[in-house]
Amino acid sequence: MSTDQLLKILQDYSNVLNLDTILARTMRELFWGIVKVLGYIVNSISAITDKLFVLDKFYNDPHVVEFINSIKPLIVVLFALSLLGIGYQLMFSQTKQFKKIGTNILVALAVILVLPMAMNKMNTLTNIGVTAVKGSPSALTNQIIKSNITDVLLYDKENFKQSSINSLESPNEIDVKNISYIDPTSIVEPDFINKSNIKNKDVFGVKISTDTNGKLTTEKLNQGWMTFWKEYYYRYNINFLSIIVSLGVIGATLAFTCFKLAKIIFELAYNKFLAILVAPIDINDGQKTKQIIQNIMSMFIVTFLIAVLLKFYVLFVALCAKTPGVEGVIMLVAGSFAVIDGPNIVEKLFGIDAGLKSGFKTMAGAYMIGKTMTGGASKIASKAKSMAGGTSKVMGSALGAGAGIASGLNNKKDRKSVV
Q1: How far apart are CA 32 and CA 38, in angstroms?
Q2: Residues 225 and 69: beta-carbon distance below 8 Å
Q3: pLDDT in tens, 182-228
Q4: Rounded distance, CA 302 to CA 52, Å?
Q5: Residue 108, C-beta contacts closer than 8 angstroms, at least 6 positions apart
Q6: Which residue, 139, 149, 200, 411, is most buried by CB atoms nearer than 10 A?
Q7: Residue 418 Cα distances to 203, 406, 407, 408, 414, angstroms
């Protein structure tokens, strides 16, 4: 292969032909470790998210059910007192609202007796819908890594022809399941046993340099026997920035999803308790009970909408994984913010936040509380230390003054005895 041909290939593919150096090898090992840790975190959070879609794990917990059953005698008492109060009002009221009160009594009885069963039915329907539409971002973790790794030997297989390389479906032929097991510091050794069936050994044996006239030329890689560090090209060109940012964004989005679902799981149990407690004392009006029931139904609807949103997010991440470079990263970040903010149309139509905004606020609030408590504790400790120091100084001064007075009195007494 002529020098001009070698120069053209080295220039056209300079972004994927990277020389092995001590610094580059160290950085590759470090960044690949970060990628593997982030991949593990994303997969773990995704597994937790799948488990949190089971909403009845808390409000059907035996301890919660036992606690709610323990207040049933109180509910009977509240029901009786409420009926007595309503009877007293009807005796002196000019407008007899028997129909409204009768309806509210039936609603209260239904809430107390039927609500647990109704919540189980709603949970079953929600699980059916979630199972039908839910997507798992963990399946895309390896796909994101694979799409950002270029195998130089695949380009060599295509003889570095731009048309053939552009028609490739993937920048490497590694199975997506095995992509995390590659060696990021693997090098191309054309002078060694040609196990990789390298076609263009000349390309991997030279690098771009300049001659005495300042013109571009090729220079053989330093691979002498007495060389401390032989020069070779890396087999893989890895876009670490794109992988780390993408996995970080996906991990954050899934973390917000976990917080949102965990909050719903807690609120369902509390709203169940609150509905049973409020229903007997809300017979006269009934609006408070209706609001609690509407809130419970809204949480089941929101759970299903989160599953739908997550499915769209998975499809969008798959599209971003196929989009190379900065464009794919920007699209992924924008999509993640859209998921966190939630579709505005849902909030306008139903008055509920189907996004992960509340999960983000919860995490931010927890962080600020922790930071405030830590800062407050350090300030208190500092103040206590300064007060202790001041107290010790005052006590020292007082003791010194006392000692001085005592010494003066003793001297005076001694002088008198001498006289």
Answers
A1: 10
A2: no
A3: 999 999 887 665 556 788 888 888 888 888 888 888 888 887 665 66
A4: 13
A5: 79, 279, 280, 282, 283, 286, 289
A6: 149
A7: 111, 19, 17, 16, 6
